[in-house]
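Input:
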Amino acid sequence: MSGGLFDDLRDLYQEVILDHGRKPRNFKRLDDADRTARGDNPMCGDRMELFVKLAPDGHIEDAAFQGRGCAISMASASLMTDTVKGKTQAQARLMGENFRALAMTGVCPECGGEIADDMERLAPLSGVHDFPSRVKCATLAWHTLNAALDGGAKEASSE
Amino acid sequence: MDGPIAPWLNLDAVRADFPILSEKVRGKPFTFLDSGASAQKPRQVIGAMVRMMETAYANVHRGAYHMSEQATEAYELSRVAVATFLNAGDSREIIFTGSSTNAINLVAHSYGRGVMQPGQAVVISEMEHHANIVPWQMARDAHGLELRVCRITDSGELDLDDLAAKLADGRVGLVAVTHMSNVLGTVTPAAQIARMAHEAGAKVLFDGSQAAVHRRVDVREIDADFYVFTGHKLYGPTGIGVLYAKGALQEVMPPFLGGGDMISEVSFERSVWAPYPAKFEAGTPPIIEAIGLHAAIDYVNAIGMPAIEAHERALVDRAMARLPQIEGVTLLGRAQDRGGVFAFALDTAHAHDVATLLDRAGIAVRSGRHCAEPLHERFGVESTCRASFGLYTTPAEVDLLADALHQAREFFR
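Output:
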């Protein structure tokens, strides 16, 4: 890749983020979703619709999303839908809470224990903490997940 | 820097007037290409405001003592300076407000709801800033007005045939359109729009928030009924806007806000309004900001609008020569008559990602929808980056932007 001008931005735009941004995983509609919610950061132009399918015992069987937005918001939604599959709703919410801490501060003291491996997968997004105006791009997917799991608020925003 | 590009505009001297331009961003020179959102301030403006607070400040129109009289005189002199700047016939036609947004809301309330009749229509255009959309939606809903939206062409110019069609039934009371788009840079043919509106029996308002910075505005030549601009985009302070309104209209318009300074008599039963423009300036006005605006107008006048226009034309030519050449860059709007505002999209990256990269190079651009969401929908784009120029912008900065955009595209490939 050419252009030394932006080399120090590789911390923010790590290869895994560029990859998930270009080719988001789980980028589809789930017609049999039990929960859905929209996420919208209208000032930015980031929008997504999130689909969650729950198993009979309540754990997250499948998650997918559709939408448009910056590389950070798309990569975050892509990584999130990958990592929450198979998790209980409580685990997913706990991951979201810790992800927001990670995005805002760059560190996550509570990211050990049973969620350690999954938080490790989300770690490439921790670079956004150096870019205060971009934190909301990374957290939109998780706000939207909470809205979907709540079932009540159908529209989320991290602005 | 390439040195002066218009022989009468000394770019180095101009830049030296703006202290912030010597700041570094992430170790790089600060390349400020967001003057369309808010312009930087020269020391002449900063100094005038500080001097006023240090030597001549008191409330206006109230105290029978020296300082208040001085402050009142300075405040009213600012009104005269604004009137001259717009070539208004009478300084009483200048109303000070808090912003362009406040000024449009004043007209929407006082004229839209106070003078226009339910069933009458307001015409806006597809390229309006939210400030010239939302107040009219509110007036529509509260007062039964109809809101009509005049189309723009694919090149980003006002579709005058559509305007004629929108005016045809004679029910339009007001045409409220931008004089220069904050996204496309398009300068609208104000005199022609005013003529069309007047022939159809409508009044006309121009949102000059961008135009007044880039062009000489003559409200009598274009025959505007209302003209709006703001201090902070004209190298002045935030917190002050201007509404030019013809005296005959101010006469019949009811006040917008009630309070001190806008009455000549108050009892608990009734109040008598002060004569215009005081009737529209309730409460303590933005006094220090008015002094700052006066200094900004003096500053712009000292350089001269013709020099500013010539400088900007050169920057626009440079941008038009460079930006469309970059692979993957799409410019929004190709108006013939345009100012130094460019919105663009990059094929490989979202506007926010581009802005974050440009920031790394010390370049400040706006990203998102620039308070013009319907316009972005019109062009079918989610969001854009916008580079906007000021009188201190250099051709080298335009080149820097073009080079950085080229590298940004490579980065995201």
